[in-house]
Amino acid sequence: MTAFAEIRVYNTLSKSLEKFVPLHGKRVFMFVCGPTVYDYSHLGHARTYVFYDTLARFLRKMDYSLFYLQNITDVDDKIVNRARDEGRHPLELAREFERYYHEDMAALNVTSVNLYARASDYLPEIFEQIKVLLEKGHAYLTGTGVYFDITTFPDYGKLSGQRPEELRVHRIEPDPTKRNPGDFALWRNRPREEFGWESPWGYGRPGWHIEDTAISIKHFGRQYDIHGGAIELAFPHHEAEIAQAESYTGVKPFVKYWIHTGLLTVEGEKMSKSLGNFVTIREALKEYDPNVLRIFLLSRHYRSPIDFRWELLDQAKSSYERILNGYGNLMDMDIVEEAGEREAIFLEEVGRIRRRFFEAMMDDLNTAEALAQLFELVRAVNSYYEEGGQITAVGRTEVISAFTDMFDVLGLRMGRGYDESMLRNLVSILIDVRAVLRRRKEYDLADEIRARLREIGIELQDTPEGTKWRIKKS
What we know:
The protein is an alpha/beta fold. Helices cover about 45% and strands about 15% of the residues.
């Protein structure tokens, strides 16, 4: 992959495209804000986590050594409130929905995360950071908890671009004991009948922002390469993380590249549980293959919003079927011993398409254009196949390699969980048995084999050259 041009990414911090140069050579450390586990994850979450999974896959394909860390917010008022309503312990509820989250991610082939870190496991690190921020005068103690004083951090607002006077409009956590309306909680005191922990400043629970810096600094140190999350988190969450971390360590910048995804909306409004306009990942997977969801979610540039409509999933389903059919045509091509001029021209086109795929990914992770190049590869294969193109075993391996590179980066599991060679052998056996039945004029049994295969998504096509088959999503 080293023959390709440099990778460029849009950095929310600088508001510009920048050349991607990690802090430590080819080693990359990436932290992405994970879910608050009090309910099922929806397609808005999927949009974010599928993208960062794709980013991780791409960096590894480009020979970077990536450590991908994601937090699990298992300490939050939403968890506590729902657990109270259901008469359950908050951590019991959190573990249940954390398990569902992992199941959803596995179904979507989001497999690139190295470590999921629960906030509740990092209380010692949280206490240490709060202690140092108090000692340095960046935080103060009141009767309701410990707060970060944003006036002690002149750079507050540099990520989101908000002016100081605008920051005062956002009355984060209204509390008359705070010095400034925008000061945010590092620790909140709570009544002892509520869920919480003992701390040097009273019984309670940590603030949301300090959980993430406790986790990331514990594993990555004072600086790291990439912080990701949805754009809605830029303020106040990520702004607060920067203020906490840089005040705690004295090192700037805390993160070199801030990469944010656009929102998934419904009729222009953010898909969210609070608005009640969400579709869970599980609901979508009942109707559509996981590959269809990934194609849908990656079909727009990651920084652009997606306005959800069911017909967009139908379009993604058709696109997926095109990919399957194109790959099937490649596998159905007649194998010849020697390469001809037509094959050479075809393979040159495949090489150009593959290069354009990686160029799209290097140009600010443009998955929409990368997908377009995958469809170009399918078009080239179909055209060559329909013109009766033959291919050598080496040539087919080269085209399979191009498909595989694209599938790997986009996270498409085209094998759909089966051993492909075994499936091909089994279908070939059934085709041979069906041919014998037809010669014996036992057409009912032959038709039964064809119908049963169709039921499981395998289409047989009788052609003058013999019976061919392909996988088709019903």
